[in-house]
Amino acid sequence: xxxxxxxxxxxxxxxxxxxxxxxxxxxxxxxxxxxxxxxxxxxxxxxxxxxxxxxxxxxxxxxxxxxxxxxxxxxxxxxxxxxxxxxxxxxxxxxxxxxxxxxxxxxxxxxxxxxxxxxxxxxxxxxxxxxxxxxxxxxxxxxxxxxxxxxxxxxxxxxxxxxxxxxxxxxxxxxxxxxxxxxxxxxxxxxxxxxxxxxxxxxxxxxxxxxxxxxxxxxxxxxxxxxxxxxxxxxxxxxxxxxxxxxxxxxxxxxxxxxxxxxxxxxxxxxxxxxxxxxxxxxxxxxxxxxxxxxxxxxxxxxxxxxxxxxxxxxxxxxxxxxxxxxxxxxxxxxxxxxxxxxxxxxxxxxxxxxxxxxxxxxxxxxxxxxxxxxxxxxxxxxxxxxxxxxxxxxxxxxx
Length: 400
Hints:
This protein is α/β, with parallel strands linked by helices. Helix 12 (243-251) packs antiparallel against helix 15, helix 12 packs across helix 16 and helix 17 (341-347) packs across helix 18. It has 3 domains: 6-217, Rossmann fold; 243-319, Tyrosyl-Transfer RNA Synthetase (Orthogonal Bundle), CATH 1.10.240.10; 330-399, RNA-binding S4 domain (Structural Genomics Hypothetical 15.5 Kd Protein In mrcA-pckA Intergenic Region, Chain A). Helices cover 46% and strands 13% of the residues. Strands 1-6-5-2-3-4 form a 6-stranded mixed beta sheet, with helices on both faces. It has 19 helices and 13 strands. The longest helix is centred in the N-terminal third of the chain and has 18 residues, at 96-113. The protein is globular. The protein has helices at 6-13, 25-30, 51-65, 78-81, 96-113, 125-128, 133-140, 145-148, 152-159, 166-182, 194-206, 243-251, 258-264, 270-281, 287-303, 305-319, 341-347, 354-362, 380-383; strands spanning 19-21, 37-42, 69-74, 119-123, 186-190, 213-217, 330-332, 339-340, 366-368, 371-372, 377-378, 387-390, 394-399.
């Protein structure tokens, strides 16, 4: 096939990228005029695909759109080992059944984000599960403890006297072996994966392969604007969130997070993002209007322009006109009388747990037909047919 000029490919592929190593090698690979094998490893350790996770998936798709081969490594084996990247303590190991459950939950979404053509999906159990002790010892012999201790999070834990298990030392080696197994030309990942990706270069070189080019993307901050987007922290937006939910969550981010979201979540160019932020700084653009445009762009990426317009209109009905969305899910009341509200709210998916529901009640964030509720128990007759609102965006019509 005919490839775009290298300069045009670089423009598309380097948008938002934090690091490319070695410098200049990506341009050289693209100049070879062949489909490159671009590796991305994903460990299914959570049930959702977030906007943060989608940052690297969308970069992988850009490679596909330019005619290169996306090699998606499904870390069904390494997920059971546990990636220590950015961790201050040993993480809990997942069972095979847990990993399989997460795989089933996210793979359909991941495939929708990528193109069906030029795609290889390779579970790393394909080669890692077949290794015997001889293979493991041979792999370990290729690295020294001092090389592994170059990793910042390991060295910090060592200096603090915190325990590091030997299995954590193995994780970078296993991920590196994936690059050898699929003969990757390029590996992409988040900035927290830089060490692992560089270990992949080392192992390829020692295995007689040409070392891969490494590309990392910044980690998208969550809706709190402070910490990286994480399902465990609850500060995330799922790519499968309904358009109105996705729009509302985006509108809730702090102004200081907007530039990064423009580039990483909405895929604007750096220049476009800088222009928007400059407009806010000089008063040419209101921050609220800038955030609305950002929310529309993100929703449109995953649901289409029509859904983005409807989501904005729904947002206005709730927040400007203090009304309820046009479509509200029904929530069946239990037979108990009175009804214990924390349990009702949690069981209806309007809060993550009973304790969170109680906190929301205490904070006055729960309303019944527009009136604040603070009681933990309410007569059932008062609830039948009423509109329950939890927080700013969660509604349910209570049915008997």
